[in-house]
Amino acid sequence: MLLCAAYLLPGQFGREPWKNADITAFGYMSSLAEGRSPWSAPALAGLPGDGALLPYWLGALSIKALPFIDPANAARVPFALLLAATLALIWMTTQHLARTEAAQPVAFAFGGEASPLDYARALADGAVLATIASLGLLQLGHETTPELVQLTGMALFMWTLAAAPTRPRLAAGAAVLALIVIAASGAPTIALALGASGFAICQWSRYPGAQGLRPWLVLGMLAGALVAAAGHAWAWRAGIRWSSAWELLRLSAWFLWPGWLLALWTLWRWRQHLTYRHIAVPSIGVAVALVASFTMGSSDRALLLAVPGIAVLAAFALPTLKRSAGSAIDWFSVFFFTALAIAIWVFYIGMMTGTPAKAALRITHLLPGFEPRFSAPLLALAIAGTAAWLALVRWRTARVQHALWKSLVLPASGLALSWLLLLTLGLPVIDYARSYRPWVYLVAQHVPNGVCVAAQLPRSALAALENYTNWRIDAQGDVARTSECPYLLVDENRRAPVSAPPGWTLVVHLHRPSERDESTAVFRRTEAPLPHAGEFGRVAQAR
């Protein structure tokens, strides 16, 4: 539980919304909470959303329910709970599957083996550790995006299939809910594919509870399709290319690390019994996610839905994992994450003291204008996390009896340590590099307070302008010709600057401090009066 907390909490509070998807989703939530767009059609600067109503409603309702804290922090509260629910559902899914007769180990001739419940719990712990160790979940799991809601829906759907034989009534309602959640989060096609795959598993199951789940899966698919239609979530996003197969393979190699290695070992060991429930249930989740990612041009956000299935499959590899393989994983984790922690500490010391000078110069070169700030509570958390890592390494390498999940504890803890250090020691650097606030400060020096601003910018930048300034943003259509706003912002490439449209005068070319190629051109209408000193825009410290 302490390890889960160390993984869950860093990055949830006390930081800026990051580009691109994180601040875009927060922009829709803030727009709903502040009444800038109707609840039935979330919009940014007049541009409609992607049909993922449920995630934006959750964030907006949390903002309205917690008016005494920063809106960005308030919006993350339900998503932090969703990530915790995902870990819990993966644990319960693995426990249910591990208690089936086919998944239990062969009993010893003279007894002494673990009880079925203890064995299932040990594998469930391993599945949670495999989830935490997944590299792809690290950042995406701490963002306020629709994909995290889809991930929770995927974990809930897997639990319904796993629990149907023993808890048929609860699983029936959960199946309908899971498919509606996935469809209402912008993935109705994935919901239909999961429902059809689950129907096939239940059709050939010998458990009466699983067979009774079939009509509820059909109901869930119909309800999900209707919810998606009502929220205008049906959209063609497929872009199949043969090169996507190679791109997906490369992406999966690091995104699903290290779980995919253990999952492949599980599939190999059970290759003659792939229809068993503890193999088939997680496999359909992985298969649907891989196909979705491939058809969407090797999308990492679609691949995120494979994490629960990979984690469950990885857990069933632990009983048959050879000692040499477990030792290799341990020593790789010790050396890699210890070296990474040392590098983070060196950069932190260089940033705060100027020594070593090379680290300080590197940060200055990459982030011009960045000014480090010291935080004693964050430093204390980083020291405590580092001490816990050293104690864990000493415990794991000692010659004592360890639990079944021993091979995954160091990869999961090492990743949690790295995330903790990055979001404590490196939080100011990451905020400066991935936040739009420094860019908005630059733009505000050339645009007066409270004016209308036309914008041809990415939606993430539009969300930043709406949430950090008091300007009225117009981004609908060809704003350079149709908008009546006195100022115009245009996204451009620094190597190919944009020339002034007819009727506009160039004010300045700006770029975000952490971006080398992206730039923004600021234009003013030729007939618009020049602002007086003191009239330029002010960026909100907290909205």
Characterise the protein shown here.
With 543 residues, this protein is α/β, with parallel strands linked by helices. The chain is built from 24 helices and seven strands. It folds into three domains: 228 residues, no CATH class; 112 residues, no CATH class; 89 residues, D-Maltodextrin-Binding Protein, domain 2 (3-Layer(aba) Sandwich). α23 links the parallel β3 and β4. The chain is globular, with a radius of gyration of 25 Å.
Choose one word for the global shape. Answer: globular
Strand order of the largest sheet: 4-3-5-7-6
* Uncertain residue segments: none
For the biggest sheet, the summary is: 5 strands, mixed
Tell me, rounded to a whole number, the average pLDDT.
Answer: 90
The helix tally amounts to: 24
Strand percent estimate:
5-15%
Ends: how far apart?
Answer: 33 Å
Task: Tell me how many strands there are.
Answer: 7
Query: Total domains, how many?
Result: 3
Rounded to an integer in angstroms, the radius of gyration calculated over CA atoms is: 25 Å
Class from helix and strand fractions: alpha/beta
| Helix percent band | 55-70%
